[in-house]
Design a protein that fits this description.
single chain, globular, alpha/beta, 46% helix
Amino acid sequence: MFEKGLLAKKRILITGGGSGLGAAMGGRFAELGAELIICGRREGLLEETAAKFRSELGAKVSIARCDIRDGAAVEAMMDQVWQEAPIDVLVNNAAATFIAQSEHLSFRAADAILAPTLHGTMYCTLAAGRRWIEGKHKGVVLSILSTSTITGRAFTVPSSMAKTAVLAMTKSLAVEWGPKGIRTVAIAPGAFPTPGATGQLRPEARGETWSHRNPLGRAGEHSELANLATFLISDQAGYINGEMVVQDGGSHLRSSGAEDLLQWTDAQWESQRAARTKARADRR
């Protein structure tokens, strides 16, 4: 689809780059000649993914263990990355979400979603932008958002709020930073199943009927999102700025994606809360 070497000489930092969509995008970028820095909290996972890219793709890949919820940690990471050379692209991919009845959300639960999805994304964007501007270096920020920015979405309110705020940031910085040679763009994916997201958003109680509500009758392939991301960060998309591209098979035109949850019983919600509490305990 793209010329080999399309992303040659580009250094790309991907948050949440060790797995899921972050790894899918990273692999595609590496295939097309990019140098990668993959960021996340789990060093072992980052090392495993980096080793795979090096062995299978011959890519230059480094890792940056960082909790993007911590602004000081983000600044330290960016200082370290910039010691070698500026990055050319920041991909804001890291985020958190789960389904819950909003009236049962504690402040800690809400903050667990807002901290990486909104605050972490903002910290990374401002840290990269500041350095680009100081160094008169052109750059691109790609943020992975959600169609909830268009429709809203019941039972994932903190995530919908955070993603919508990041869209506002994308549009605002397009105007403020565009004259400085910095583009800000975004993708709103539909269903692109990953183990992490599926576990949080699609428990067994929801079944598989959601896929049949998509006008195309299927979920997205990771390669499809990776190819769109590749185009948006490449010089071929140099006149696209401040825009969010929806990639969901037309699903948001039919449904916000949460209507089935309106039929859940109190017992189903209680079971979901218990499963989430157990999953948190297992991770400790």
